[in-house]
Amino acid sequence: MFQGKIIDVGIERVRLPNGRRVDLEVIRHPGGAAAVAIDDRRRVCLLRQYRYVAGGWLWELPAGKLDPGEGPAATAERELAEEAGLVAATWESLGHLHSSPGVFAEVIHLFLARGLSEVDLGHGADEVIEVHWVALDQVLEWCFNGTITDAKTLVGLYRAAAFLRHGSEQLMDGPVAVVAE
């Protein structure tokens, strides 16, 4: 078993629903939360962030890991302030996602943040971040054309667009229900 600052890696013996016992490699993570911050002009706050493991710069939502004793909504609020220098007057849950459930035990909670105002930035020394405001229609185009490749960002943006278009009744704590028109 490896225990790191953020993740634990190990092999776990489990019984599957079919009764078979197998050894699975599992990466344990405390989970995270992301904020889809949209202003009154329908612009989205996106971060252009350097990610060594991904091989360069990525477009991402403000997001981060859950601290001990911290709930997902508090994490989203903290990360929005630290990484983007923003606070929001209203928050809506956009459900959650499993980032890579074959091996990674991480759940990311998604939130829509509106009624935005600025505060001082406070991101860490290990983060190289640029804050950008991009029109929602342009951001959705970036989702479709491959400019945005980060999974939590893709899911968060799609769910936020569905929420803005159809309202909360179209969202579940899981996939967005797509309604044919």
TrEMBL record:
Catalytic activity: GDP-alpha-D-mannose + H2O = alpha-D-mannose 1-phosphate + GMP + 2 H(+)
Domain Nudix hydrolase per the UniProt entry, residue ranges: 27-156
Gene Ontology biological-process entries: nucleoside phosphate metabolic process; ribose phosphate metabolic process
The keyword Hydrolase belongs to this UniProt entry's keyword annotation: yes
InterPro entries: Nudix_hydrolase, NUDIX_hydrolase-like_dom_sf, NUDIX_hydrolase_CS, NUDIX_hydrolase_dom
GO molecular function: pyrophosphatase activity
Domain of life: Bacteria
UniProt keyword annotation of Hydrolase present: yes
Keywords on record: Hydrolase
GO cellular component: cytosol
Alphabetical list of Pfam families matching this protein: NUDIX
Cofactor dependence: Mg(2+)
Family: Belongs to the Nudix hydrolase family. NudK subfamily.
Name of this protein: GDP-mannose pyrophosphatase
